[in-house]
Amino acid sequence: MAHEHKPQPPLWAQRLLHFRLSEGLSEEIQGDLDELFDLWVEEMGIQKARWKYIGQVLGFLRPLPERKEQYVQIRNGKLPPAQIDVSSNSLQTFKVMLQNYIKIAWRNLLRNRTSSAVNIIGLAVGMATCLLLVLFVLSELSYDRYHTNSKQMYRMTMHGQMGGKEINTAFVSALAGIVLAKEYSGVEAVTRLRTEGSFIIKSGNESFKEEHVAFVDSNFFQFFTIPLVKGNIRTALTEPNALVISETIAHKYFGNEDPIGKSLTLGRMGLFKISGVCKDVPTNTHFHYDFFGSFLSINPGNKWLNSGAYTYLKIEEGYPIDKLRTQSAKMVEKYIGPEIKEFVGIDLKEFIKTGNRIGFNFQPVTDIHLHSDLEGELEANGNISYVYIFSVIAGFILLLASINFMNLSTAGSSARAREVGVRKVLGSVQRQLIGQFLTESVLLVFLSLGVALGLVLLLLPGFNQLSGKQFGILTLASGWMLPGIILSALCLGLIAGSYPALFLSSFAPIQVLKGKLQTGLKTGGLRNVLVTIQFVVSVCMIIGTIVVYQQLHFIQSKKIGFDKEQVLVINDTYVLKSGINSFKNEIEKLASVERVSLAGYLPAGSSSWGVEGIKIENHASQSEVFRSKAYWIDEDYLPTLGIQLAQGRNFSKDFPSDSAGALINETAAHIYGLKNPIGTRISTVGDRSNTYTIVGVVKDFHFESMHQQITPMVIFYGGDNGQIAIRLKTSNIPDLLSQIEERWKKYSDNPFSYSFLDDRFNAIYSSEQRIGKLFGIFAGLAIFIACLGLYGLAWFVAEQRTKEIGIRKVLGATVSSIVVLLSRDFIKLVIIAMLIATPIAWYGMHQWLQDFAYHIDLQWWIFVVAGLLAISIALFTVSFQSIKAALTNPVKSLRND
Amino acid sequence: MNRDYLGEFEELILLTVAFMDGAAYGAAIHQDIRQRTGRSVQLSAVHIALYRLEEKKLVTSEIGGATAQRGGRRKRFFTITHEGRHILSEIRQVREQLWQLIPKMI
């Protein structure tokens, strides 16, 4: 018999019936109805049978007599009455009780509007914050986990030490990938990626500047799970000058046309033919490129020491990565050893003996976003410590809100004590009362959750801006998010409600009804502890905020060794080609321009610089290679940027020999061990080895963020057409910009783009600024929630002591003495909280500051200010209530007795 | 025998239970009443009547074994009790007497 073809009554009607009927009845009645349904189907066809079934189900919605097997049996004399189990009869009772609980809870909520509002607002704010932070943390943790076999994917990195400088790069030699794929057995696939900076991309007459251009091996899209919308995923990038673009870019350049087979000009690299369109790279990936050229289009270098590519590998399932780590040492021996001999002139053993190291490592791709901070990361990565910090903050804020909840519930218990007493006298057992109070707290939590979700939707755009993420409403509703939220809310309601429930339900009815209960004193201890915890958290956050802002101010105003104000930078001037010099001359003639320099390298922002190994000639450390930053400037560079010379002179056109001259910074002079650097000859190592004479020493300036120490640097003479830096002497910037743009257009039809040096410099610290802002916001929230709680408590205390205050006033107490009386207890708590918070905050912020090579010292006044702030806020909150209570006419409060 | 008053529908059900002799359960009774009287009644009415009768101790019930026919759900079989039979025959006697009092018009 084919069961699947058997007609079924409507599912919803079946469910309705099941829901309606109690346990004892459900089986027989459903059985009867099913049997009849089958008969009807044969008689009148399935449609009519269904209607009839629904009609019959509706018939059961009328009141049914309680048909209890046991009652019948008792009446029939089969069971003695003592064996009646009341609780097993509970389904129906439970529903009624629940209705009653909710009704009572609702009435209570409306009766105590102030405390309910305080409770709901506090909880809602806490939950909303927590939700936003959870969204952030989950998104940070989800990076690169969507690739198939993401657990088997690793990135090869290079670590070592050369000339006293640590090398930790995210990229390795471009040749390493080939060797890995060929010679290592556990490696399943290897793919490489290389960037060549930004490009001006032309399509017909249009051209745009594009930052997100990469060159990748042909198996790239299979390796990372990024599907191609058009084109063949296997063959799209097998040819030189083939290009895959993202959907967004396809739309930008070609609208709705099919881009396959069309061509784009990639700046200096020439014409590329589009062979595929890929989905946009998901946000939670450690790279975001829009253009993927084939790896064959570029020349990554053919030596191990001067070629580079980001190299990813997928190992076979279960293959131990440590085995690969050990084996990779052979790679150094076999391939890098000979090159060291060739370039440096010593063999590998000697190289290592002089304190140098070189080796490879493999990091899981899923760890890149949060755990990797190497030289040359593809993007600014996240930081696992911020994930921790935010998780902790989320937990704390929720904790604060829950504490409020418990505090207010127990504080309000005196008002409920009588209700509990009456209920107990009428026969409630403690279990039922617990149930009642838990229902109340769950109801309150769910009301807050509603408000919180509203808040989240309201705040999402702002939060997205702050966190640099793109969350939508859908993020909240996707996957396990919503069930998770509801379940956590339920748990929160049960946990936060458990203390008040247990506490309230334990009242002894006689005492309560006699009015002997002194709830204020009895629960004072716990409540005080809770308030103290709230303020410990708040004070810590205030201190954190102050320190972060101090440090930000410090690094932004610290002497950086050059003048970053009033410097305009014109980007991508290489497109001017040979016209660049006459362009420069024209700009120099403008009245509001002081000086112009062709500058490849500028502090902060995208710049071109290289790393060279520097050897000092005729020096004790002759075989030592110092790894130094190196770049090229013209004679106007130092004056334009306002960089000072410590010794010697700037490059000059008057000295033809300067083309073989070099400038170094003070740090370099110190590390190279040169007492009189002027005139010393240095040479670069590598296949384009050259010798230079030092002509001057520049004072140290910060060319990287304050996280890093100043490193040795060598500057060569020759100019670099990458960018132009212009020192201005005008306040009419828009006017000047239009003048420059006008001249730019004479030389190039490429887009004119510019930036200001101080903006670029500030942008380095965007991450710190973000943290500062977030800290500020969360500190504000923590204080807000804590104060809400304090406000509620003060309100209750004032209420409880109304009569006391009345009597005191009648006996002659002044308003101020009563305010002091009411506020004193709370202020004591805040002071204790301060004492606890100070060492915790000191330790935490001390750790954070260690991240900066240049940082402020933690000063005592920060802690004092934070403490005073907390006290004054608390005092303000409490005094609002105490003053109100103190001003009440005693006649009113005493009249009733 | 004034203790229990039986409604017309209850009487009908009780009679059906009686003649079915131990094989009476909700669906069967519902079906039988429809066929016999042409009345389309609510199944809920049948069940409510049965439970009332049980409360009045005119029928007893027993859960039967599982059957494959109705999704494995068990049936509740009703049997008429001694009191049930008694009340039926009492009703019948009253009716008989009344019939005999009617002049032979019909």
How would you describe the overall organization of this protein?
The complex is a heterodimer of chains A (897) and B (106). Chain A has 897 residues and is an alpha+beta fold. Chain A has 30 helices and 24 strands. In chain A, helix 20 packs antiparallel against helix 26 and helix 28 runs antiparallel to helix 29. About 2% of the residues of chain A have low confidence. With 106 residues, chain B is an alpha+beta fold. Chain B has one domain: Arc Repressor Mutant, subunit A (Orthogonal Bundle), CATH 1.10.10.10. In chain B, strands 1-2 form a two-stranded antiparallel ribbon. In chain B, helix 1 crosses helix 3 and helix 2 packs across helix 3. The chains are: A alpha+beta (897), B alpha+beta (106). At the A-B interface, helix 2 and helix 3 of A face helix 2, helix 3, strand 1 and strand 2 of B. Chain A: It is found in: Cell membrane. Chain A: It holds the Pfam family FtsX. Chain A: This is ABC transporter permease. Chain A: InterPro entries: ABC3_permease_C, MacB_PCD, Macrolide_Exporter_MacB, Permease_put_prefix.
Q: What is the number of domains of chain B?
A: 1
Contiguous helical run count of chain B: 4
How would you name the CATH homologous superfamily of chain B?
Winged helix-like DNA-binding domain superfamily/Winged helix DNA-binding domain
Low-pLDDT windows of residues of chain B: none
The top-level CATH class of chain B is Mainly Alpha
Helix content of chain A: 40-55%
**What would the average pLDDT of chain A be, to the nearest integer?**
81
Q: Looking at the structure, what is the overall shape of chain A?
A: globular
Structural class of chain B: alpha+beta
Number of strands of chain A: 24
Largest interface, with Cβ-Cβ < 8 Å? A-B, 24 and 26 residues
End-to-end distance of chain A, in Å?
Answer: 83 Å
State the end-to-end CA separation of chain B: 30 Å
Instruction: Give the percentage of residues in beta strands of chain B.
Output: 5-15%
Number of helices of chain A: 30
| Major pleated sheet of chain A | 13 strands, mixed
Please give the share of residues in helix of chain B: 40-55%
Structural class of chain A: alpha+beta
